[in-house]
């Protein structure tokens, strides 16, 4: 015979398990019960990430039945808003438009970041990527990656590439190319993308690798020549441009991804509810068209895959930053 105390203990344990099994669905069903803040770590209208973040806020409002309010918290190249989100209560009412630059590159180039993106944020869903494209001024006698590498090896240090600033994605793309192709090229940093583009179009600098959006029209009208796409698959916008990877630098990939994150410790039922909402949003035809118009592409990842991707991206760029000794300005 089982002692009475043992029976009571088993009954209480069963009750606790039963309560827990009901609590998770209940939490997901009741969330959200008030407006949600979506932090965008860049100024309004300043970048594709702000545009995508505002679109996501509107769509999430429709999906969740509560207003999702975009809040721009710019500063420190996206790190200020990202840090603020990471330090917010993990209740699902503060979310973050997470971006590659601050989350995957920031830990390597900033000595006092103030938070750990991997440990202090909960991944929810990746929803878009913006491919990078490597282009040259047409005066440079190269038409593909093979010819560019050959010229760079023939004239070490003479070819240059522009960027929108030290440790930004265009700079990292150039450094990754140098490393994988084993060539010596000179980095020319600018204070912004507009200045870099002006000098590239005039021929003062020879090459840049940056977001597809800024380059597509220049390539189509012949003012710039595409060398290769810095993604693992070709783009619908420039389907005839081969990837750098397929031209010999296997695995070469540089893009700007945009994803949804929450503070670490956010309950799993809330994370799952938000992921399912993003998954439905991605399938909407108008969203696909909107992303393509911005030079981006839909790219859905669930929480586990996004978490693994962030860790891998952080390791990749950390190794490159350490090998070059670069630091953020």
C-alpha Rg (nearest Å): 23 Å
How many separate structural domains? 2
What is the CATH class name of the largest domain?
Alpha Beta
How would you sum up the major sheet? 10 strands, mixed
CATH fold type of the largest domain? D-Maltodextrin-Binding Protein, domain 2
- What proportion of the residues is helical, as a percent range? 40-55%
Mean pLDDT across the residues is 90
Distance between the termini: 74 Å
Q: What structural category characterises the helix and strand content?
A: alpha/beta
- Proportion of residues in extended strands: 15-25%
Q: Uncertain regions: pLDDT < 50 for 5+ in a row?
A: 19-23
* CATH architecture annotation of the largest domain: 3-Layer(aba) Sandwich
> Can you count the helices?
12
Q: How many beta-strand runs? A: 10
Order of helices and strands: HEHEHEHHEHEHEHEHEEHHEH
* Silhouette: globular
Specify the CATH homologous superfamily of the largest domain.
Bordetella uptake gene, domain 1
Q: In words, what does this structure look like?
A:
Helices cover 47% and strands 19% of the residues. By secondary structure, the chain is α/β, with parallel strands linked by helices. The chain folds into 2 domains: 165 residues, Bordetella uptake gene, domain 1 (D-Maltodextrin-Binding Protein, domain 2), CATH 3.40.190; 117 residues, D-Maltodextrin-Binding Protein, domain 2, CATH 3.40.190.10. Strands 1, 2, 3, 4, 5, 6, 7, 8, 9 and 10 form a 10-stranded mixed beta sheet that branches. Helix 1 packs parallel to helix 10, helix 2 packs across helix 10 and helix 4 crosses helix 12. The longest helix has 27 residues. The radius of gyration is 23 Å and the shape is globular. It starts with a helix and ends in a 5-residue tail after the last helix. 40% of the residues are buried.
